[in-house]
Amino acid sequence: MRYLSAYFNVTVKTTTPEINGTDLAKQAVKASPDMIIACGGDGTVTEVAAAMVGTHIKLGIIPFGTANALSHVLCGTLSKVASLETICLNLIDGCEQRIDTATCNGELMLLLAGVGFEQQMIEKADREKKNTSGQLAYLKGLWEAVGQNEVHEFSVQLNDEAPFTIKTPSLTIANAAPVTTLLAQGKGVPNIMDGELDLTWLDPDRMQILNLAELAMLGMGDKNEDSESVEGNNGIFHRSAQRVTVDISQVGHYVIDGETREAKTLEVVVRPQSLSVIVPESIIN
């Protein structure tokens, strides 16, 4: 913390099995600091942010996890290669930005919820595999899930519209996702400041390797302006909404921001511009 202590009055708190990031952040919020910094992976960042939504306290991130997906969303590829010194300097000189958050079954969601491929990938990439292989553990888990290609039926309701039924091996509901999160790229990289959720699901009858390749192209900017339609983009389907309800009783479990949960229904609601974060000035400009 020597980089930060020259500019800030820094207090360091460490999580324990009994006290998580939300508990510590709630204590910090009571002191009305200018900034609360989460040092860890996406799970730790979400825990800390849960106590900060709706406040004007700025969230800073020092990414020390496996995927660091939110940091990638906010800071670009810089988050993958930057030194600790550079990250701290960005916290000192960076700009404040309001971003969307969401709730999934009442729990804070910064990134996405998923059933099918995304959920299976997370379940297969356990802590031991992540410690050994890092992000390759997720890739291996994804390939295993794609190879199985289990198709599920879901009833989906967007906002107050009539429900519709889909059959798919993969459904994601994203508030934000970096380009590396392929399964959420149904209309390119989701915008964390557009006040909407992005649903992406895949055609079960098309070769999934083709769907993944197409998602990669969409994430790199090859966007289809017609992909808002439920007709889909070849094997890729995309819709946007502020509130999404999904009957997942056929599966019974899902993943939210890299953590597995059990439920028969998903209810995801976006909360526009509800969290202040620090991003590099170059991102704003």
UniProtKB/TrEMBL annotation:
DAGKc domain location: 1-108
InterPro entries in UniProt: ATP-NAD_kinase_N, Diacylglycerol_kinase_cat_dom, Methylgl_synth, NAD/diacylglycerol_kinase_sf
GO-annotated molecular function: kinase activity
Pfam families in the cross-refs: DAGK_cat
Keyword Ribosomal protein: no
The keyword Membrane is assigned to this record: no
SUPFAM superfamilies given in the database record: NAD kinase/diacylglycerol kinase-like
Keywords from the named record: Kinase, Transferase
Lineage: superkingdom: Bacteria
Signal peptide segment: none
PANTHER family: METHYLGLYOXAL SYNTHASE (PTHR30492)
Full protein name: Diacylglycerol kinase family protein
